[in-house]
Write a structure and sequence with these properties.
The protein is α/β, with parallel strands linked by helices. The chain folds into 2 domains: 173 residues, 3-Layer(aba) Sandwich (Rossmann fold); 204 residues, CoaB-like (Rossmann fold), CATH 3.40.50.10300. 32% of the residues lie in helices and 24% in strands. The strands form 5 sheets. Strands 12-11-8-13-16-17-18-19 form an 8-stranded mixed sheet, with helices on both faces. The protein has a 5-stranded parallel sheet with strand order 2-1-3-4-5, sandwiched between helices. Strands 6-7 form a two-stranded antiparallel sheet. Helix 3 packs across helix 5 and helix 9 crosses helix 13. The termini are far apart.
Length: 408
């Protein structure tokens, strides 16, 4: 007797596309979702089809594309699409579409789908700054969020024409990361950090040896960026101090400060911490730097080049703890490897006691773990002695677990 094993069902996503110039970015969102194993049905508005044709969406999704409720009537699409979806993402969500969703209007296939969906709904706005800041739009966004709809914070940058400001569609990779997070945890993005200022460091510092070379590490900055991204979408005002990162797009709704070496990072974090309610040190800071930087490139042809003499960099986390404001929460990160005598968690416990912070996130590194990868896992250690394992998942998922603890 042969037993057949059914393949696990692919998560079903409805990708709504509103009628704005940013509709062309929905193609990249669609490509990333389908390539990562999701079944995606695109539901554009008539306005969206003036920017991107149905044939493009059909070719990328492998599924038919309709905008009105009178196509394929026997399948009752206007009800079934929302009922069957595991997630609905609308990108871009125009001011008009936000208004319709807030007030329950249903004059096309997408707005009908929004009314019938009982799964998580992620609306990603894109519009001019004046439209985003208009009281009517702000009221519509507040109403949608009060019902549990996730309305993402838009990015700032170049808009249509010569205009620049808040209202730009976030990077497609960021939209996909938020979608993946909501599929894993439908409650991952509550607005529980509103009114709070958080300061986060990310990336790896580089300590110059000469004009060409440096001492550094393998940190990509992805975990720090995920922490900033999730905090901003949960309502916080975020200052992200970024050392070297792997060409990551800045998270939407975040104030970005770029630095190079450990001393620059310390100075920027001290400034940000002056007004921060929460400080998270996720950057991988070089422990040592050269005592002197060569003014010229050290060449292989140089005879007996001077040895590189190292000195310790400042302990930024310990300094932030020493200068903390009353009530300020401070979180550290520890990338650890075990050895013959001491395990990863033992190293983490010792570091938590030594640093004096409130929480420490411990990651085991090596063998494709933590550094230069999309996912992460670890433990959340608290000064009260509790230890919470964080299962393997996206770095945004780890970020959501940490923000849950901080919000509580």
């Amino acid at each position: 007797m042969t037993l057949s094993v059914e393949a696990p069902a692919r998560p079903r996503i409805v990708l709504g596309v509103g009628g704005g110039i940013a509709a062309y970015k929905a193609c990249e969102v669609l490509r990333r979702l389908t390539e990562s194993g999701h079944a995606v049905r695109v539901v554009p508005t008539d306005g969206a089809l003036k920017f991107v044709g149905a044939a493009t969406f059909e070719a990328l999704s492998g599924q038919p594309v309709h905008a009105d409720v009178f196509s394929d009537v026997p399948s009752v699409q206007h009800v079934k699409l929302g009922q069957d979806a595991d997630l609905v993402v609308v990108a871009p969500a125009t001011a008009n579409l936000l208004a319709k969703a807030a007030h329950g209007l249903a004059d096309d296939l997408l707005t009908n789908t929004l009314l019938t969906a009982r799964c998580p709904v992620l609306l990603v706005p894109a519009m001019h700054t004046e439209m985003w800041e208009h009281p009517a739009t702000r009221a519509n966004v507040a109403l949608l969020r009060s019902r549990g709809v996730v309305v993402a914070e838009p990015a700032s940058g170049r808009l249509t024409g010569k205009d620049t400001g808040k209202g730009r569609l976030p990077d497609p990779a960021e939209i996909v990361e938020l979608a993946r997070l909501l599929l894993a945890r439908s409650d991952a993005l509550p607005r529980d950090l509103e009114g709070r200022h958080v300061a986060i460091s990310a990336g790896g510092t580089r300590e110059a040896l000469d004009p060409v070379r440096y001492l550094g590490n393998r940190s990509s900055g992805r975990q720090g960026y995920a922490l900033a991204r999730v905090a901003a979408q949960r309502g916080a005002r975020v200052t992200l101090v970024a050392a070297h990162t792997a060409d990551l797009a800045p998270p939407a709704g975040v104030d970005l400060v770029r630095v190079g070496d450990a001393r620059e990072l310390r100075e920027a974090m001290q400034v940000a911490a002056e007004t921060a309610d929460v400080v998270v040190m996720a950057a991988a800071v070089a422990d040592f730097r050269p005592v002197a930087r060569n003014e010229h490139k050290i060449k292989k042809t140089d005879r007996d080049p001077d040895p590189v003499v190292l000195t310790r960099n400042p302990d930024i986390l310990a300094g932030l703890v020493a200068g903390r404001r009353p009530g300020q929460v401070i979180v550290g990160f520890a990338a650890e490897t075990g050895d013959a005598e001491t395990g990863v968690l033992d190293h983490g416990r010792a570091k938590l006691a030594r640093k004096g912070c409130d929480w420490l996130v411990v990651n085991a590194v090596g063998d494709g773990q933590a550094f230069e990868v999309e996912d992460n896992a670890g433990w959340l250690l608290s000064v009260d002695g509790s230890e919470t394992p964080i299962p393997h998942g996206s770095k945004a998922h780890l970020a959501s677990v940490l923000w849950d603890a901080i919000a509580r």
